[in-house]
Amino acid sequence: MMRIIITIFITLMSTHVFSSDFEFKNNIIDVKHGYQVGDLLILKNTIISKEKFLELPALIDEKKSGIRLVKQNTNTFTEKGNHFFVHKLTYQIFQRSKGGNFSLPNHVYTIGKQKLTMPTQNYWFSQIVASDLNDVLINSLDQVKPFQLEVNKNNFYLLLVFTLLTLGILIYKKIDLPFIKKMNGPFAIAYKKINLLHKKSNQANYDESVLILLDSCNKSFGKNTNIFNIEELINSHSKFHSVKYAIKSFVALTNSEIYSSQNYYSEKRFNDVFQLVKMLRVIEKKI
To answer: pTM, whole model, 2 decimals?
Structure first.
């Protein structure tokens, strides 16, 4: 009660002291029957002077809990010999109290060494118990909205599908399942056998590996392969075109090895045979 009396006294004194120099008024724009949590409340303070403002009035704004100043702008103009200073202040309501009549923060302007206290404006507040603050801070210009991390589920599902697809491709390239025909073809079987033989590199294992790989070529192409028909056989199986020259080289050297007493074994040669069967195994599984 004492605070209200002091405010009225200061207002009356300010009006009396400055009535000869200034006129002032203020009002709430778009008055509602009851403001709610998250609503914006706009107050317009106007100061009128007969003399041109040597310096613009500066606001001393009082802080109050439950309501926050979020925007302000000023405008000056001259009309019919009077000089106007218009100050619009946008408040946002964050109250959690019960509904009722509440006063806005006091507004005191300093003009040089003078102070001008604006009349206090009141507003009605209606609490919506069922609403949460974050749910009502929507569709209003300049509202202060709390930062929220938004998860786009569509992007998440796309990433999940891409990850599973990539994983499936990698697994398909690496594993061999006997009940799937493409994973149990002639080159897949040859790879398993040669892989074991290659772990111990010697002449006997090399010779056996060469025969195994040649046998897998015969079964895969459907004919006994030799230097004379390998070109035609590869051309009729398009997915093997990328390793055409490697296959032709292997068949040509293998034919020489089978019908010659010369020893062609070397670790590098064995490695080449093993790498070739690995490539053929992967190509064989292509759809």
So the answer is: 0.41
